Amino acid sequence: KGFSRALKALTGFGDGTWRNGGLKAQKSPTMSAQCPKAKDAPTAPDVDTCAHCGIKSGGEGGKVKLKMCTACRLVKYCSVDCQKAHRKGHKKACKERAAELRDERLFNQGSERTEEDFCPICFIPYPVQLDSESVFRDCCLKVVCTGCSLAALERKSMDCPFCRTPPGEEGSLERIRGRAEKGDPEAMAALASGYFYGRYDLTVDKHLSFKWWKDAADLGHKLSQFNVGRAYSQGDGVPMDMKVAIHYWEEAAMSGCPRSRHQLAMLDGIAGRTDRALRHLLISCKLGFKESMDMIRQLHKDGSVTREQCKSALVDYLNAQDEVSSPLRIRATMMDRKRSTS
Length: 342
Description:
Helices cover 58% and strands 4% of the residues.
């Protein structure tokens, strides 16, 4: 309860804010769901027989081939008719097991950086705050870190550091739209940003920006998944639906998006699922997300997080910061600061 109250105070969100969007506190799994050896736990079904009619795999002269329930992977069926007939009795256990399997994926995946988190030139991972530490290149749809951009300028080259396209020959909007229409998720995300922020001389249109972000999200583009979740959580260009927002944030978190995992931590904490919230925060700290580290520090001051947990999060966060640092990036940051103060 203290953890939940602390998160509400820090975020400024009350229970009603999220309940109106469809989020409700969920009960923890029962002991029988957590432990198969619990007193009232049902015995495990025979996976070599149909869960409804009992026919064994390979029966009737080898003609019977059982298929696993794709949701829970606990039982098998010999036909669609048997699956439908058994659905009523199996539905509850199936949903519980499917939720457990999704949680296993949610907390076992997304704690490491993926290929798109690295600069394609120096192969050093990007900082989480991409906007201030990298440059998006319209010509090749690559994100180049500020260090590599500075290295190109020091060579007196104004061409794209990655694809060597000369300035003024990019054809930004036409190139991006063409690639987006052919199914390139990076181009879809770029076009969505164009409609959302009014880039490339486009008129701001949140419905079109959502459409392109959702197309990219459905192809596994994690930043688009985060943006789609944000749109659903705020009702921005689409009707508000927190359940759908959580789905997209979970998909993004499993792909390694710390922003999405931080949002899930806030929601779990507010709903009273403190263990889940802390696990999310620890993972996003490991990926170098400053807001999660600041949250854990504050929760430690409030007594909601132990000293050991705070220390572990800080070590992981500092390691993540070291991984994204390079001499060229440091110089580029210092030059930007001098220009901003002059």
